[in-house]
């Protein structure tokens, strides 16, 4: 769905000084219908920016995005209304994302407005149906305001709102991060069931790898605006080939299916300023495996086994010893 996406921001003043940040740098991927692709990375990796480039007009600075054969970018792109039929988004903070003055029923009805003249009765029926899908009853919640719901209920409402118009793609940006830990598992379970029962296509933006493991068929790791690695979730979790993926994964508890116990890899140093990313491989200043070539030649995302691509000059094979220069602990 995304081909060679570039998105830049001009920064006047701010955390990083002055200049241009290329938050997303030549990123390409596609998602099959019914599939969930997770994009994983630290804060500032560009994953939310990527989601925004898909969601919002005017879209990316360059590159092409299309969903279900319809172009979202370029001269013959779809209208705003049509875009809402193709893609909807679930945000991190459900309460902040819902207009506080609207009732739950009206919030959910809004995306249906773009579908021309649905009869009032049909609208009511669809709202009740989608609310029950997310585990809420229309008679109990339809007339409430967002502030009259809990965080978990508000996220269920936001999910219902995103799904009511049956979009081709649903982007979930950190859908459980802002919720109480006790509620997180319920929402993950709900997303899992919805995906299974309705054959939904999700782009999941996450830093929580346990969420990714449950929901995503494929995962892409992202660092300073570029993809490091993309492949099948189980495969990458078992054998990460990019040192950044390996570091992210070593931070979570091992899983019964994992072949070997991995040493904990801590990233070296601090993340560099996105205003002046390192030459060559952007991860090199924090990579324990970096060699001279890593500073000179940008590693391209290249095929590395079935359904897997890796952007690294020295992909891990899974048998190397813990790097001596890395800070490791068990
Ligand atoms: Fe590390 Fe070099 Fe691979 Fe970049 S290209 S991840 S610096 S080994
Ligand atoms: Mg974010």
Task: Give unreliable regions as ranges.
Answer: 10-17, 324-330
Rounded mean pLDDT is 84
- Look at the helices and sheets and give the structural class: alpha/beta
Looking across the biggest beta sheet, what order are the strands in? Answer: 6-7-8-3-9-10-13-12
CA-based shape? globular
Largest beta sheet, briefly? 8 strands, mixed
- Approximate helicity band: 25-40%
Give the CA-CA distance, first to last residue. Answer: 40 Å
If you compute it from the alpha carbons, what radius of gyration comes out, rounded to the nearest whole angstrom?
21 Å
* Secondary-structure element pattern, one letter each: EEEHEEHEHHHHHEHEHEEHHEHEEE
Count of DSSP strands: 14
In DSSP terms (H or I, runs of 4 or more residues), the helix count works out at: 12
What is the percentage of strand-forming residues?
15-25%
Description:
The protein has 330 residues and is of the alpha/beta class. It has a domain of 97 residues. It is built from 12 helices and 14 strands. The strands form 3 sheets. An 8-stranded mixed beta sheet has the order 6-7-8-3-9-10-13-12, with helices on both faces. It has a 4-stranded antiparallel beta sheet with strand order 2-1-4-5, with helices on one face. The C terminus is likely disordered. Bound molecules: iron/sulfur cluster and magnesium ion (MG). Iron/sulfur cluster binds next to loops. This is ABC transporter ATP-binding protein.
